[in-house]
Specification:
Elements (H helix, E strand, L loop, with lengths): L1 H32 L4 H8 L4 H13 L4 H13 L4 H10 L5 H11 L1 H24 L24 H36 L2 H8 L6 H12 L3 H13 L4 H13 L2 H10 L2 H25 L2
Helix pairs in contact: 1-6, 1-8, 3-5, 3-7, 4-5, 4-13, 5-7, 6-7, 6-11, 7-14, 8-11, 10-12, 10-14, 11-12, 12-14
């Protein structure tokens, strides 16, 4: 009974904290985008050279989009003449570096872990887009149209109206991830209360050299949104799982979801999709090794 109470307390605290963070951060980001037009974003991302890759990764890092919105935006960028490399930097960064994920990292794992995670994934997204373009992968884009996603926004006259629309969008996004959040926090609470510490340490502790690549491989086909896996990772860390393995699981799961992989296959040729998966896996392993090496 005591174990159940401990698990329930973990569930209630983490769920409430993540709910407040998600709605607050998503509303703030939505409000910012009320003052930035889509055309302005496309013009900035069309900058040539490394600046375009930087802006693509930066846009991915500040937009709390799911794959159903990221992929249509990707097609829109390509059709608007945004360089392929900048677009790929956006695709890589978008599921891994949105503000909700970063605030959750900060709140649950600390500011050092948050900044290190941001730095590693942002740099990889930026330079991966540049390298893919230089290696000629722009020719692997199919000539297709993808419908859906965020349409053009009509300008609103007052701050209050903009704030209401921003919160409405945040609430809609929250309802979309609520099931994932409940599952993630529920699994985390069960692990926190019932899974023996020794078992986690043996399988995924710092002393197991295969813990990081194994976590990355598990994450890729598993499809756990980062909002789902971070509370699971917190519980696993409490049981002895290394922070590097947790980070690898987050990147593997969030960076290559099954829905996103399916949609990418609709706009990219098989070779580019395979390279994309390899990049996600490599990023997960590299980030995990960095976290364990510097022992945050």
């Amino acid at each position: 009974m005591n174990t159940f109470v401990v698990s329930l307390q973990f569930f209630a605290f983490i769920f409430l904290e993540l709910t407040v963070l998600f709605l607050g951060v998503s509303t703030l980001v939505g409000l910012i985008f009320e003052y930035i037009s889509d055309d302005a974003i496309r013009r900035r991302m069309s900058s040539k050279g490394l600046l375009g890759n930087f802006l693509g990764a930066a846009l991915g890092a500040i937009t709390p989009f799911c794959s159903c919105s990221t992929i249509p935006m990707t097609v829109g960028f390509l059709r608007a003449g945004v360089p392929f490399g900048a677009t790929l930097s956006f695709v890589l960064a978008s599921p891994l570096l949105n503000p909700v994920i970063m605030v959750m990292f900060w709140a649950l794992l600390g500011w050092k872990a948050c900044l290190t995670y941001w730095a590693v994934t942002f740099v990889v997204a930026m330079f991966s887009g540049m390298l893919l373009e230089s290696f000629g992968f722009a020719g692997d884009v199919k000539n297709v149209r993808v419908s859906g996603g965020h349409g053009a926004r009509e300008p609103l006259p007052s701050f209050g109206a903009k704030l209401r629309r921003a919160f409405s969008g945040a609430w809609a996004d929250f309802r979309g991830v609520l099931a994932y959040l409940l599952v993630g926090v529920g699994i985390g609470a069960a692990i926190y209360g019932y899974v023996p510490n020794d078992l986690i340490v043996t399988i995924a502790g710092p002393q197991n050299p295969l813990a990081i690549p194994a976590a990355a491989i598990i994450g890729i086909p598993l499809y756990v949104r980062a909002e789902t896996v971070i509370p699971i990772g917190v519980a696993l860390m409490e049981k002895g799982m290394s922070l590097g393995a947790v980070v690898a699981l987050v990147i593997g799961g969030a960076g290559m979801s099954i829905p996103e992989m399916s949609m990418l296959a609709g706009i990219f040729k098989t070779r580019l999709v395979c390279v994309f998966v390899a990049l996600v896996f490599s990023t997960a392993v590299m980030a995990g090794v960095v976290f364990n090496f510097i022992q945050i």
